[in-house]
Amino acid sequence: MKSIAISGSPRENVGKRDAKELRYQGLVPAVLYGGATQTHFAVSAADLRAVIYTPVVHFIDIEVAGKKTQAIIKDAQFHPLTEQLLHIDFLQLDENKPVTIEIPVKLTGTSPGVKVGGKLVQKLRKLRVKALPKDHLDNIEVSIESLEVGKSVRVSDIKVDNLTITNAQEDTIVSVTTSRALRQAEQENRGK
Fold it and tell me: Is this structure's pTM higher than 0.90?
């Protein structure tokens, strides 16, 4: 899985007033959990754009006061009106502990159902996956080569080594439904 490096500066004061001052300076208050102690720090909002505003999942190499840590984003809080990033939580990774991450679904192949006029409907764009950090993938490939009209691929159909998908097994990832044009063509054929 890809990594992005960001650096932050430790926060001496933790509180609303201090957080507001940091945001005014273009920084985002952040917390790193999962280690022996919590680390409160501030990071540039510009550095976080490549991590937050992307469908790609990244491990983040965080450097605070000379100490490097690998982490993932656990939570991000945004202002309800301006969509400004207000706060971000990171979870420190341990190579011996499994971690749950949402990984994008990548559809591969061409569906025969779509070729005959069916409509491709992707219901899940990400899957929750639990695995050791070294086993995580950039995306999960789902083949639609055998997807006919009326058929679907469910979470239970996906098997990936060393990963456990924690979504409900009966959830549909992608399906091919009958399109309006295909229904009309079938009705015209019946009428003849």
Answer: no
Counting other chains too, the contacts that 76-82 makes at CB distance below 8 Å and 24 or more residues apart are: 76/52
CA distance 181 to 17: 59
Q: Token pair of 35, please? A: 């280690």
Would the pLDDT of 8 be above 80? yes
CA 172 to chain centroid, in Å, comes to 18
> Among candidates 153, 144, 158, which has minimal Cα distance to 172?
153
Task: Give the pLDDT confidence of 100-152 residue by residue, as tens digits.
Answer: 999 999 999 999 888 888 889 999 999 999 999 888 888 999 999 988 888 99
Q: Which residue ranges form the domains of the chain, and what is each CATH number?
A: 3-93 (2.40.240.10), 100-190 (2.170.120.20)
